User: Fold this.
Amino acid sequence: MANGIRVHLTRLKLESFRNYEKLVLDCDQRHVVLTGENGAGKTNLLEAISYLSPGRGLRRAPYERVAKSSSDGAWSVFAELEGTSGPVSIGTGLQMTPLGPDSQRRVRINGAQVKSAEALLEHARVVWLTPAMDGLFSGPAGDRRKFLDRLVLAVNPGHGRHVGDFEKAMRARNRLLGEDAPDGAWLDAIETQLAETGIAIIIARMELVSLLTGLIVREADPASPFPDAVLALEGTLDALAQDMATGEMAASELEDLYRDKLKAGRRLDAAAGRTLEGPHRTDLKVTHRPKAMEAALCSTGEQKALLVGILLAHARLVAELTGAAPILLLDEIAAHLDSGRRAALFDRIDMLNCQAWMTGTDKSLFAAMGDRAQHFQVAGGTVTPD
Assistant:
């Protein structure tokens, strides 16, 4: 049984959010099961909770598209929760200004606006699985990077800022390389920033992969319905970073090496119209450990089980490192699991000492949860106890 603080929502309030005009949902520390027809608004509730964490939420939607279609464009999510530092109220959304809805999501903690959404991580960590992630191992590498970076963010609050700064600097470099006579000094400055933030990203990812794989191997259970996964990073700079991990190279040396690569690659990058080397090219490789098989070659059911296993292991890691497991958002989690795996999943979630929010169209799929969860029916923008 996991120890530590049980971070959980006690109230969720929405205004003009997706298909909800106004909603107040009270809950306790138990898990939450939301059932209803497709399109009823179950995933919208999970998306709202995902905004209690830095980033663009589980759908990564532009903020201006989140507001209810009949509204003025402003929207808000308010939550009361028992966080890692005690009771806290969190509000976020787009505010209305004299010129219309703001374009930047604002965050308030206990009524005070904070400068950065990173402050949310002082109170709760939120991770999720959605049906769109079922093809993660066979889909584009960019999806795996986003998944990896979300896992890293839960244990490294500064990671999101490094990723954002890197992407902003990379766009500036690409624009500059597109000019007829780019300023060399300006390119040097941008590439120095890219090297610093890029290597910080690689180190953070490498540390997370090492810790997570170590935990999975240490707690390996041959009888588990969720097979052990081995994670690895694949990329030119990632391979060089392994030398740093063994003490053969310092981080500053790796930064210098990356900066030199960027400078040497300017002509090629200009021709390609993009930066060809960096952490934005890293791929996450996952192996089904018992079968020694790449996840991409596994069956659809095995891939789903691997993904669930990674998420559960990550939640245990977060609890070890921070003293509290993350809030789990599991969209349509039971739909493609047999009864044995469903029961095992619910038991493992319960052992994490966390609060999980789960959705599904068939409430019978969650029967094994019993009274360990609060059950709600979702229909047409309303949520009622079931």
Summary: The chain has nine helices and 17 strands. The mean pLDDT is 94. The two ends are 28 Å apart (CA to CA).
